[in-house]
């Protein structure tokens, strides 16, 4: 079971002062370090939402939660090892996921940029990149970010991101992907959803 919450900055601006109080002192310092106000506010919104969701389960105040990080930087709660979660944010929006098994989530704002074809050839498997080559215009851009968020969600769930060499094959079956990493093979259920100018994906280990 997975619960995914999408939050839009425009809808949360009036609550930012209250949301900031949910953060740890370290998170507040990191938020203050952002140069762009929008980046700072999205960080506050998404991290506060995660803390609120987890605190309701852990029966404590949001700011009391103490996160630890794995060797590759994936956050976890040492006192609640069965509680799996992930968060992601982009320009103007964030997404939070919590689940009863290993989970990863990623969100992107769909936007065109120079060099999209070259980046696809670099980060996607040949078969994945080939599927994009037959598309043009808005369909190409949207499909690129759908595929990107799926891959990123899996790698975030695995806890490594792009820090180690991986082969992530999308899909091997309807909604199922295979990840080859560190000499091991794993399978993931992947769901993708588009909301306006945003697309997000969530990955759950099978």
What does this structure look like?
The chain is an alpha+beta fold and 206 residues long. It is built from seven helices and ten strands. The protein has helices spanning 9-12, 16-20, 25-33, 37-58, 116-123, 126-133, 137-158; strands at 2-8, 68-69, 75-76, 84-90, 93-99, 103-109, 166-173, 176-181, 184-195, 198-205. The strands form three sheets. Strands 6-10-9-8-7 form a five-stranded antiparallel sheet, covered by helices on one side. A hairpin with a 5-residue loop joins strand 2 and strand 3 (75-76). Helix 3 runs antiparallel to helix 4.
Summarize the structure.
The chain is of the alpha+beta class.
Estimate the mean pLDDT confidence: 91
By DSSP (H or I, 4+ residues per run), the number of helices equals 7
Biggest sheet strand line-up: 6-10-9-8-7
- The helical percent reads 25-40%
Q: Globular, elongated, flat, extended or rod-shaped: what is the shape?
A: globular
Compressed to H and E, one letter per element, the order equals EHHHHEEEEEHHHEEEE
| Class per helix and strand makeup | alpha+beta
Q: Which runs of at least 5 residues are low in confidence (pLDDT < 50)?
A: none
- Measure the end-to-end span: 12 Å
Rg measurement, Å: 17 Å
Main beta sheet: strand number and arrangement?
Answer: 5 strands, antiparallel
